[in-house]
């Protein structure tokens, strides 16, 4: 059996399909979209409404302000999108939601490596809980603030994925150097002019000494991360702490009471 390579394909379920591709239609993502490096399909949830008024929402059970997207209409929209692309049935089904797990670069990289997600955009007060469970939607947040709809959140998620697709940005987004690679924020960048309002470019960057430049950038990235994002820094410390497989034998005698060592520890 031959399998044709599938291009990365995002399907967005929204009440406002005219918001797509929007900003994803320009610059590198837009060029890549036009040249078929990735695909985007925006489907109108309202097309799955069944009543005369094509209604998609209703007032919240239990009372309260606003409206809630109906489970039956949304489930029908999800099923229709599933049916439209048989081969992508197993792709991630996301729901943009402030209650979701905050989006990270590593989740973005996973999504970019897959077939491309189906993304449900909420509106109003949100969507009926039952459809989240029945269609196993993964709730994804773009931050601890509330947008008026999931569309801008979906655009952000798709943009972050698309720039990682092969051929979209060339080497630019290789990920090796960027913020969050290795759990660090990126070092500061400079370009011409050599002096701006009395401020020169750090001399080391003009030295041509690649090793020193790399060391400087590394140190800057670490200092920046430690200062601005202690949460990222702490996480990284945990991940990169070397695993001690043997007790160190060259250390001077411990001044604090030694922790009890498990019995089966080998002393070399
Ligand atoms: N009443 C809801 C907010 C609804 S906002 C609550 O308090 O949780 C309307 C829609 O905007 C949501 O259904 C979701 O799809 C989208 N949205 C709002 N903020 C978001 C965020 N931080 N991340 C992702 N999607 C968000």
Describe the fold and architecture.
This protein has 268 residues and is of the alpha/beta class. It has 2 domains: 8-162, 3-Layer(aba) Sandwich (Alpha/beta knot); 195-239, no CATH class. It contains 7 helices and 9 strands; from the N terminus they run E-H-E-E-E-H-E-H-E-H-E-H-E-E-H-H. The protein has helices at residues 27-34, 71-84, 105-113, 129-134, 151-162, 210-228, 230-240, and strands at 8-14, 38-44, 57-58, 68-69, 93-102, 118-121, 138-141, 195-196, 199-200. Strands 2-1-6-5-7 form a 5-stranded parallel beta sheet, with helices on both faces. Strand 1, helix 1 (27-34) and strand 2 form a beta-alpha-beta unit. The longest helix has 19 residues, at 210-228. The protein is elongated and about 70 Å long. It starts with 7 loop residues before the first strand and ends in a 28-residue tail after the last helix. Residues 96-99, 121-123, 125-126, 141-143, 145-147, 149-150, 153 line the site of S-adenosyl-L-homocysteine.
Q: Which key features would you list for this structure?
A:
Alpha/beta knot; 7 helices; disordered C terminus; 268 residues; two-stranded antiparallel sheet; 9 strands; alpha/beta; binds S-adenosyl-L-homocysteine; 2 domains; 5-stranded parallel sheet
SSE inventory with pairings:
Elements: E1 8-14, H1 27-34, E2 38-44, E3 57-58, E4 68-69, H2 71-84, E5 93-102, H3 105-113, E6 118-121, H4 129-134, E7 138-141, H5 151-162, E8 195-196, E9 199-200, H6 210-228, H7 230-240
Parallel strand pairs: 1-2, 1-6, 5-6, 5-7
Antiparallel strand pairs: 3-4, 8-9
Helix pairs in contact: 3-5, 6-7
The structure holds S-adenosyl-L-homocysteine (SAH).
S-adenosyl-L-homocysteine (SAH) binds next to strand 5.
